[in-house]
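Recap from last week: sequence in, structure out.
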Amino acid sequence: MPSHLTTPQRARVGHTRLRAERCAFTLIELLVVVAIIGLLIGVLLPTLSGARDAAKLVVQQGNARQLMMGYAEYAIDRRDYVLPAMIDGNGFPDEIRVAPRDAAGNRIPLSTQPGRRWFWHLAPYLNDAYDVMYRDQDLLEDLYGRNDYYEMTLYPGFGINQRFVGGISAYRTNPLYGRSWGRSWYVQRTYDAKRPSGLMVFVSSAFTSGPTGFRDGYFRVEPPYFTAQNWTTMNAPGKGDEPTQSRNVWPVARGRVVAGFMDGHAEAMEWGRASDMRLWAPDADAPDWRMPPLTP
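Predicted structure tokens:
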């Protein structure tokens, strides 16, 4: 301590040094604090992850409800004809064979793939809220920013239950279907749904292909069974699995699938419930129900 300091000054300097020594952390104390912080992070991360997943499910359920509201309004304007996943031929009624418009207001011919898929047909009934249809918002922003209206129709976060809601043109143009199964086995008009609260229309989806990789969404999905088993496995997707195994049906979070039903409500459900055919087909009466073979 400098000799020129007075006795009171020396006392103050000594007190300051003593207080600094008392406030300093030892190495052991620092390690304990780091360990406590690590423990807290380990405890909080699953909670935060669970909260994030729960929020994602809530958002997607809300989107599914909005999709069903637009879907119902579309049917009202089309004499109750429902919108299929794809208007893929001349077998559909004139009421729905109307060329839609893209985001720029240009007509999209029904002779093109974007004009056939449901995306642009339903968009006006959602006030062009494309984010309601998409789960992957980054992909949506990229496609919209590039005016890629073709790919926008491919990867919405929900696919339509193509086989049993709206159907495909072959059902109407190929007499084999009518002769084998009649006309009431799939929904053409809203009143064809025998159990509206138990019939899924939109189902959370995904897609994988070589050039594009994984896409968190696809515009159509297929049921677990048709005349035979459609899905290559009935187990919930795990690490390394691909949407092709479940015909593009895919969980949103926590292994749960989100679906919009014909009566307008939405659910987040476990995989086992989502693979129950009674939610897919109007006539299904068992979880593994399937259509009878076609009659030649």
